[in-house]
Amino acid sequence: MKFVLASQNKHKLVEMQAILSAHGVEVVLQSDLGLRVDVEETGETFAENALLKARAVMAASGLPAIADDSGVCVDALNGAPGVYSARYGGPELDDTGRYRLLLENMRGAGSRAAHFTSAIACVFPNGDVIEAQGECPGTIAFAPQGDGGFGYDPVFFLPQLRKTYAQLTPEEKAAVSHRGKALEIFDGKLRTYLEGTGK
Predict the structure, then answer these.
(1) Closest by CA position to 3, among listed 156, 99, 19, 42
(2) Which of 60, 73, 91, 193 is most exposed by smallest CB count within 10 Å?
(3) pTM of the full predicted structure?
(4) Domain architecture of the chain: domains with CATH
(5) Which residues, listed in sequence order, are joined to residue 72 by a DSSP beta bridge?
(6) Catalytic residue among 32, 69, 153, 187
(7) Which is it for strands 2-5 and 26-29: parallel, antiparallel or unpaired?
(8) Alpha-carbon distances, residue 92 vs 60, 70, 72, 80, 144 (angstroms)
């Protein structure tokens, strides 16, 4: 069984493949199929955006499509950057530019509490939908630490582990991360779904 990941992000592909391969599911990027579906993320929540992306890629490919929409929500910034995490500061900024802007905007903040959220949606050609969501609480570090991961990982600090996401091994990150938790919930729902359809 083949799922198309509604993303160009190879890091997400690795994380998805690690979980879904247990079901005999092969996950491919849309670019592997010669597709480039750019979806305008007009949703007000992570779940709405994940569903928008999965629906568009399923329609273009004719295959089950899985999408993740995730971001960091900072208490002192009233939940920002939130659903705008990937576009924070505008299209000219890269990952480093975005987390530097976040650190700049956090200057003088009384609280550094934050959480990462991941919403996953999978849409099948028959119209069936599986959704899951996961969260990971943490804080925003005062300076980037570690060189693993991507996005805001160098500044997302986990007090219980005394490390940022970027300092964790992929296995450690999968065990605690928002996407890891969402995928765990999704994994259970997918197993039930596949058993029910006899796949």
Answers:
(1) 19
(2) 91
(3) 0.90
(4) 2-197 (3.90.950.10)
(5) 116
(6) 69
(7) parallel
(8) 28, 20, 19, 19, 20
